[in-house]
Automatic annotation (TrEMBL):
Catalytic reaction list: an aldehyde + O2 + H2O = a carboxylate + H2O2 + H(+)
Phylogenetic lineage: Eukaryota, Metazoa, Chordata, Craniata, Vertebrata
NCBIfam families, per the entry: mam_aldehyde_ox
CC terms in the record's Gene Ontology section: cytoplasm
Chain sites annotated for binding [2Fe-2S] cluster 2: 117, 120, 152, 154
Domain of life, per lineage: Eukaryota
2Fe-2S ferredoxin-type domain location: 8-95
Needed cofactors: FAD; Mo-molybdopterin; [2Fe-2S] cluster
Residues engaged in binding FAD: 265-272, 368, 412, 430
EC number(s) given by UniProt: 1.2.3.1
Swiss-Prot/TrEMBL keywords: 2Fe-2S, Cytoplasm, FAD, Flavoprotein, Iron, Iron-sulfur, Metal-binding, Molybdenum, Oxidoreductase
Gene3D superfamilies in the cross-refs: 3.10.20.30, 3.30.465.10, [2Fe-2S]-binding domain, Aldehyde oxidase/xanthine dehydrogenase, a/b hammerhead, Aldehyde oxidase/xanthine dehydrogenase, molybdopterin binding domain, CO dehydrogenase flavoprotein, C-terminal domain, Uridine Diphospho-n-acetylenolpyruvylglucosamine Reductase, domain 2
Name assigned to this protein: aldehyde oxidase
Protein source organism: Sarcophilus harrisii (Tasmanian devil)
Length: 1324
């Protein structure tokens, strides 16, 4: 920090209140300041990199030139507080609360069932709030765009969109411009006539309060005066390591750039911020030009637009869109391409923050805009103290060549983007893992200039992004094509030239080398077709025969159509309550989540929202950087010398048991994976602790073998447990008597839980008796309690675990929180201080593990009519370095048969031991992998028989009461009913014919449709884990406190428990309250998991309430006309206990693996799903068109919550099967450690039409996978390729594109795998 500088006073407003900070630190972001300094914890910390939207707030700034106030949604985790001078910040607490009044947005999201765990909800609310401040009656498309930067792992987004659409002027899609509702169109009337007891209304829109823009917070007058003040001065804020300087004039900035030539300019902090946070970059001085108006100026000239480098990307999009609407089409071709790409670049929050200049100057290899600006001949206007100069944004600049780059003292003032000419055509293409909010795999800009009135190429430029460290030009290829005609001969030559010039090494960062090479030529083909179409429109004068263009086949034209961003719609049906049910009985009614309003106002308290405790310290974990090595030494001396560092915790500090022999809490002598915890740093702040982590020096000695893949584990005979087998019939004999046999292999990738709230814990040691209070985000607090007990060697009764609510779990918070809780408890025990541990997203993903990847070998014997007679399947899962929950392999075998009765079966399963973090429980527990494998076998049989997959499914489905492979009796009545109803409600057969008709008319786009049945086994498979307890207190005022052993993960378990208690006690829910899950109140609880938490805890609550009601019966009989309060008061006077423990002993469940038989599951849940998709064969992109789900959920306690579970689980399954891909380096390092690299579904991935009945598991998301497979099969068939292919999961754009083999995939070079080191390795 420059020693002569002194800090100025930072002034900004938060929720209408003035904030004056005299010691502003440039390294402190707004999120941290809100949560720690202002105690506004509604804004959540989830990823820290601006990629999830959980920390969204609104910033408002007055522009003294335009005299307008601009409201923007931004991510608080990236926004330095020093950038806020003169700005008004609005958080979720500022727009409404239960203590004052809730805002209409908060009300509608909560009452519209748009919350589950609630952790993402404040961010959703604020994105919508910023939208409504700018557009009080937005279009549905604007809603989708506004929410594109917000992730939700629970709801599946449909409920959020539906409740938000109530703000639209017309919340219907106005399909096809007819002005009629899409759901009223005849072509969409596919649902059966409603029965009297079937409901579709989950909430009453008419009850919502109206939005009144006049009631919003005004912009602070003081900030208006500050903005208009002509005597503004340069501001300086000095932090511990970094100084922030914010000049007021351009000349001051240029002087500072001379003085600090290496200091970066920071506008939105979307590039410098993440580099400082995640890569450890430190800049002693940061220069902020945000207050310099010249850098945001827009100038129109005769030949184009000059846009200030300080304009945000959202402003650039609006400026260019405005020009497109005013100017002739021929002048705006470059502008239209930029606008198109900007709509899918990042999320709305990042577009509001990132600047045009920053995007250009950073020259990221994946840049969306630089390729277009380069082909559009954009010019960069530079300025320094020496004067102004211009440089072209060309290949030399993008490559960073010194003579074509900025000098250290120069800044980018503005960018000139010229108009396009009549004979100049510009196009841009991109392909990413998902449609919105994702870095492109490949992006490109292409431009061609023709000699007037001809198709002769006079100028040509092509730039690609995503294939190297910088944007790459195909300049030499373009030069060689000058003078050529725009025809097929030219195109064939262009393919060859570009592939030769734009080289892509096999070890290219990001991988997907063959896919990216294919996109290079696929985009070139799209460009050729697009320009050919334009030429046919523009050349009106008669030409010689040599200038006639060949007609483009109608079948080829679909290559030019891009998938639009659409708004999901649909119908949700559920069983209505009996007309005789008392009005106060809430069971079966769509009651909104008990915490829904608090989720939406930010008042719902999560683990890290708890106030700082006196003398609290922070913990940060030190993890292994090697996959298999001996620990030679741990040197923490340098870390301990840093300011604020208190101690370093190692295995030697553990007074009790350090985990197990195989699974140490803190590594001793050896590490077995990258990410294994070795020690932990205790410091006075999280910042100090994380800095100290980098200073802990560990010396390793690498060991052999190092095993990452399942195939390597098989080769090394490396397993975590013995092989398990299930068998029925005579498999060998059956194989001898079939018409056909197919054999194959399948790989199913793993999945990251990506719960929005990362793992976190607060441990508070008591001053006596070694007691400890533990506040933790866990699905199994009793397991945390037991683990801490053994680790500290103190009795369990001294340890109390509290779980108020969990911000998503999905199995990832069953066993893992115990590790973090125990290590934190060791630190608290040693220091005597309260200790808080909050994992960063990157740490969470690196350490924890996820869903088990699967590798399977199968052999299927069947008759020509499709009847399967024999099946032999071997399954191997990647368990990681320790067993953890890899006994899941047994459950995979139990669930593998799904809905099919095959008389001769043999299933084998074994977990492989590898040098990766141990994989753990995940929603579905083996069924999503095993079910997909079974359905893939069904699809393969269908292809061999020449029959449709649904015919094979029907032929092999359970038809009557029979026994499963493990000899448990099963009745398929509900399964068959769900299957038939799904066929009917989805209009499967008529739509399949429509799909086939579409495919016959389109070569480059294909549709697919698939219907999949489900037989899902519920429960743990062990009697012990089905017990539950509850404690119900009735107080003398009549209020009731309900406690039970279940944990609120977003599934609404507490809401359902209150509904049950209300019914049993025959009093309204308003009398009920639930506080928290607490091991001191209800002990010895079982993990909330296996789809059975609400059921078993509900029975315990029911039991407790029935006991209480029985005690009250004599009182009620004496005074039948009395009130509840009178009865309770009388009972107290009679000394009748008003407290009762309820207990449910659980379902019996057993499995004898020696005999291969048992009754492991209490019951089954059956269902079916039908999905339709459209794929782009040239890029691998796909669009989810429609999904229909039918499921028998028996009697739903709360249909609204259960429908939310359907949709959330389905979308999570859609992610597993089509989007989410875990990638590891050859050294065993997880390469995707956050939302930038690991893509979960966003709002644009929701099926365009989404209809559901019942409650389903995530397995039904595979209906989308098989619809994709169906579309790929159609493409392959048309190209004369075999259709008996296996599509591995997930069906990413890469896999889809490469499966649609064509001339482009054939022309790309294939590298010899032995000649290069790949960027990533497959671990399944």
């Amino acid at each position: 920090m420059p020693s002569h500088l002194q800090s100025d006073e930072l002034v900004f407003f938060v929720n209408g209140k003035k904030v004056t900070e005299k010691n502003a630190d440039p390294e402190v972001n707004l999120l941290s300041y809100l949560r720690k300094n202002l105690r506004l914890t509604g804004t959540k910390y989830a990823c820290g990199g601006g990629g999830c939207g959980a920390c969204t707030v609104m910033v408002s700034k007055y522009d003294p030139i335009s005299k307008k106030i601009r409201h923007c949604a931004v991510t608080a985790c990236l926004l330095p507080i020093c950038s806020l001078h003169g700005i008004a910040v609005t958080t979720v607490e500022g727009i409404g609360s239960t203590r004052t009044r809730i805002h209409p947005i908060q009300e509608r999201i909560a009452k519209g069932h748009g919350t589950q765990c609630g952790f993402c909800t404040p961010g959703m609310v604020m994105s919508l709030y910023a939208l409504l401040r700018n557009y009080p009656e937005p279009s549905p498309q604007q809603l989708t765009e506004a929410l594109g930067g917000n992730l939700c792992r629970c709801t599946g987004y449909r409920s959020i969109l539906e409740s938000s659409k109530t703000f639209c002027a017309s919340n219907c899609c106005q399909m096809k411009g007819t002005g009629k509702c899409c759901l009223d169109q005849e072509e969409n009337l596919t649902l059966s006539p409603k029965k009297n007891d079937i409901c579709t209304q989950l909430y009453t829109k008419e009850e919502f309060q109206a939005l009144d823009p006049t009631q919003e917070l005004i912009f602070p007058p003081e900030l208006l005066r500050m903005a208009e003040d002509l005597n503004k001065e340069t501001l300086t804020f000095c932090g511990e390591r970094v100084t922030w300087i914010s000049p007021i004039t351009l000349n001051e900035l240029l002087e500072l750039k001379v003085k600090y030539p290496k200091s970066p300019l920071v506008m939105g902090n979307t590039s410098v911020g993440p580099a400082m946070k995640f890569q450890g970059h430190v800049h002693p001085v940061l220069l902020s030009p945000a207050r310099i108006s010249e850098l945001s100026m827009v100038t129109k000239t005769n030949d184009g637009l000059t846009i200030g480098a300080g304009c945000s990307l959202d402003q650039v999009m609006q400026i260019l869109a405005d020009e497109v609407s005013k100017l002739p089409e021929e002048k705006t071709r470059t502008y239209r391409s930029i606008v198109k790409h900007l709509k899918s670049l990042a999320g709305q929050q990042i577009r509001n923050m990132a600047s045009l200049g920053g995007h250009i100057i950073n020259r990221h290899g994946y840049s969306d805009l630089n390729p277009i600006l380069a082909v559009g001949n954009a010019t960069l206007n530079l300025i320094s103290k020496e004067g102004r100069r211009q440089i072209p944004l060309n290949e030399q600049f993008l490559a960073g060549l010194e003579d074509a780059d900025l000098k250290p003292e120069e800044i980018l003032e503005s960018v000139h983007i010229p108009h396009s000419d009549k004979w100049e055509f510009v196009a841009a293409f991109r392909q990413a893992q998902c449609q919105q909010n994702a870095f492109p795999d490949v992006t490109c800009g292409m431009r061609v200039l023709f000699k007037e009135c001809t198709d002769t190429i006079e100028g040509l430029s092509i730039f690609y992004g995503g294939i190297g460290s910088t944007t790459v030009s195909a300049q030499k290829s373009c030069q060689q094509l000058l003078g050529r005609r725009w025809n097929a001969l030219m195109l064939d030559e262009a393919y060859r030239l570009v592939l030769d010039e734009v080289s892509l090494p096999g070890s290219t960062p990001g991988g997907m080398v063959e896919f990216k090479r294919t996109l290079i030529v696929s985009f070139l083909f799209k460009f050729y077709l697009e320009i050919l179409q334009e030429l046919k429109k523009i050349i009106m004068i008669p030409l010689s025969n040599s200038h006639q263009y060949p007609d483009i086949s109608e079948k080829f034209l679909s290559a030019l159509e891009e998938f639009p961003v659409t708004v999901s719609r649909g119908v949700q049906e559920f069983q209505g309550v009996d007309s005789n049910q008392p009005p106060h009985d809430p069971v079966g009614r769509p009651i909104h989540h008990q915490s829904g309003i608090k989720h939406a106002t930010g008042e719902a308290i999560f683990c890290d929202d708890l106030p700082v405790v006196d003398k609290e310290l922070f913990l940060a974990l030190v993890t292994s950087t090697r996959a298999h090595a001996k620990i030679i030494s741990i040197d923490a001396s340098e870390a301990l010398e840093l300011p604020g560092v208190v101690d370093v915790i190692t295995a030697k500090d553990i007074p009790g048991t350090n985990g197990t022999d195989d699974d140490k809490l803190l590594a001793v002598d050896e590490v077995l994976c990258v990410g294994q915890i070795i020690c932990a740093v205790v410091a006075e702040s999280d910042v100090y602790a994380k800095r100290a982590v980098e200073k802990v020096k560990i010396i390793y000695q690498d060991q052999e073998p190092v095993i990452f893949t399942i195939e390597d584990a098989i080769r090394h005979n490396s397993y975590l447990s013995s092989e398990k087998k299930l068998e029925q019939g005579n498999v060998e004999e059956a194989f001898e008597n079939v018409d056909q046999i197919i054999e194959g292999e399948m790989h199913v990738g793993g999945q990251e839980h990506f719960y929005m709230e990362t793992q976190r814990v607060l441990v508070i040691p008591k001053t006596e008796d070694k007691e400890m209070e533990i506040y933790i985000s866990s699905q199994d607090p009793s397991y945390v309690q037991k683990t801490v007990s053994s680790t500290l060697s103190i009795p369990i009764n001294r340890i109390t675990c509290h779980v108020k609510r969990v911000g998503g779990g999905f199995g990832g918070k069953v066993s893992k929180p115990a590790v973090y809780g125990a290590i934190t408890a060791v630190a608290a025990n040693k220091t005597g201080h309260p200790i808080r541990l909050v994992l960063d997203r990157k740490e969470d993903m690196l350490i924890k593990g996820g869903r088990h990847p699967l590798f399977a070998k199968y052999k299927v014997g069947f008759m020509n009519n499709g009847r399967i007679k024999a099946m032999d399947v071997k399954c191997y899962i990647n368990g990681g370095y320790v067993l953890d929950d890899s006994e899941m392999a047994k459950y995979l075998l139990l669930k593998l048969e799904n809905a099919y009765k095959i008389n001769n079966l043999r299933f084998w399963g074994q977990p492989c031991k590898t040098n990766l973090p141990s994989n753990t429980a995940f929603r579905g527990f083996g069924f999503p992998q095993g079910g997909l494998l079974m359905e893939s076998c069904i699809t393969a049989v269908a292809a061999k028989c020449g029959l449709s997959p649904e015919k094979i499914r029907e032929k092999n489905m359970y038809k009557r009461v029979d026994k499963t492979i493990y000899k448990q009796a099963y009745s398929p009545d509900k399964l068959i009913r769900c299957w038939n109803e799904c066929l009917d409600k989805s209009s499967y057969h008529s739509r399949k014919a429509e799909v086939e008709n579409f495919n016959s008319k389109n070569y480059w786009k294909k549709k697919g449709i698939a219907i999949v049945p489900m037989k899902f086994s519920v429960g743990f498979g062990m009697t012990t884990y089905h017990q539950a307890a509850a404690l119900v207190h009735i107080y003398t005022d009549g209020s009731v406190l309900v406690s039970h052993g279940g944990n609120e993960l977003g599934q609404g378990i507490h809401t359902k428990m209150l509904q049950i208690a209300s019914r049993e006690l025959k009093i309204p829910m308003s009398y009920m309250h639930f506080c928290e899950t607490n091991t001191a109140i209800v002990p010895n609880t079982i993990a909330t998991a296996a789809s059975i938490g609400s059921e078993v805890n509900g029975k315990a609550v029911q039991n407790a309430c029935q006991i209480l009601l029985k005690r009250l019966e004599p009182i009620i009989k004496k005074n039948p006309e009395g009130t509840w309060e009178e009865w309770v008061g009388a009972a107290f006077e009679k000394r009748i206990s008003l407290s009762a423990t309820g207990y449910f002993r659980g379902y019996k469940a057993n499995m004898d693996w020696e005999k291969g038989e048992g009754d492991p599951f209490p019951y089954y849940v059956e269902g079916a799903a039908c999905s339709e998709v459209e794929i782009d064969c040239l890029t691998g992109a796909h669009k989810n068109i429609r999904t229909d789900i039918v499921l028998d959920a028996s009697c739903s306690i709360n249909p609204a919550i259960d429908i939310g579970q359907i949709e959330g689980a389905f979308i999570q399954g859609l992610g597993l099967y089509t989007l989410e891909e875990l990638k590891y380096s050859p050294e065993g390092v997880l390469l995707c450690q956050g939302p930038d690299e690991y893509k979960i579904p966003t709002v644009t991935d929701v099926p365009e039409e989404f209809n559901g009945v019942g409650e389903s598991g995530m397995f039904l998301g595979c209906s989308v996978f098989f619809a994709i497979s169906d579309a790929v099969a159609a493409a392959r068939k048309e190209r004369g390729l075999t259709d008996d292919f296996i599509l591995n999961s997930p069906a990413t754009p890469e896999r889809i594109r490469m499966a649609c083999a064509d001339k482009f995939t054939e022309m790309i070079p294939i590298d010899d795998a032995k000649t290069f080191k790949p960027w990533c390795i497959p671990i399944a």
